[in-house]
Design brief:
This protein has 456 residues and is α+β, with helices and mostly antiparallel strands. 36% of the residues lie in helices and 27% in strands. The protein is built from 15 helices and 20 strands. The two termini are 45 Å apart. The relative contact order is 0.15.
Length: 456
Amino acid sequence: MGIDIGSSSVKVVIGEYDGQTISFGGSGIASTKGVKKGKITNLEEVVRGVKEAYTKAKRVAGISPELTFVAISGMYGKSIYSRGIVNLPEREIHLREINRAIKNAVYNARIPQDSQILHAIPYQFQVDNMEGIYDPIGMGGNRLEVDVHIVLIEKSALENVKRIFKQAGIPVAGIVLSPFASGLGVLTQEEREQGSAILDVGYTTTNIGIFYNKNLVAFDKFGVGSHHITKDIAEVAQIPIKEAEKIKKNFNALLKHTKISVKSNTIPPEPQEVSVRTIATALVMRMKEMFLIYRKLLAKTPFRKYISTIAITGGFAKFPSIDKIAKLFFPKQVVRVGIARQIQNFSSSGGESELSVAVGAMVYGVGREILYELDHDNRFRGKHNPLSGIGPEEDVPLPPKREEKRRERVKQPQTTSTQSTERKKEILDFRDLSRRQGRQEDGVWKKFLNMLNNLF
């Protein structure tokens, strides 16, 4: 079972795994007001949402799940990078040697006291002088080196997630970063190998995951989602949020009209006419600002040159022609709507992009799409040992304390997630950001306006 705790709802997907493939069983969605901008603010409300969504999914599936994997928002996390080096006394690489190398990379990294490792994902190996190795298992040599992407998570956030499921009476087998899960659920193996980005546009947040060499190599996030478009529509039309949400969801049908009748936000509500062009202009302005930020965040990552495909998923992926709109900002990449593809019988069930994270959490749990990783419980797992892993008691011990001085000399790895002070400067006012884009955005904006004009 995969569970996604979103800003507006909890999504649950139940499936059956036969050792080769996952078959869709059922899904359930329950609204919740216990999460704001991806962060849990009311445990009791989230527990209620989890229980309700789980009950709905279980009723549809007709089975009780044995293992549960939960996706946690990228708003809690950040990335650091490290390198591990180990000698090979037996001159042959087995799982134990790979485990040792990843553990050495983790040891060399600087982990803040308030953070915990959620994932330690190797994305490139080197055996002696041979670089760029994807999987060194079975190879021979004298030394094994590995580059590792370490995903850190706030300890308090992890503890709160565990409390939620303890109160809900659902044992948790594993926890996965949300953009990692959505990439596993949406992207094909070929896309993850060549280089792809996932844009998971949710209710009040956007999670971005970058994959290369089949692994999650970077991620980012910021606190803006589709609800901000709803608020803009409500503001320009002077209507309640619920009315604005209906307009956003049915925007394609409204384009046949020049004006529409809506209820005002007065007390009592009164019918009023609103220009569709006014609504469309507000919507387009906000979407432009959002995609400019997406492009800026992707341009900052050192893996940007590998991004050949961009998949848009989440609830906002259902917006009409969203892939064509995104293509204006990413003309060099293949842009598509990301729908969960990694389980059987899912498309015929009416599943949509909003369930991609929950589906990806299940895919993560099976482990066949992951080469190697250390998870939040310090288990070494991957496709060679799916659904199990080498537990902490079998892990390679850390070097003795006398090596502590060497550890202090290790250079602090650079992070792809923006520090809080920098993020405040980055995401101040979207309209100010639009102005600072200058002439280089004029061409894109003209195309966008032309698209808007062609709609009427």
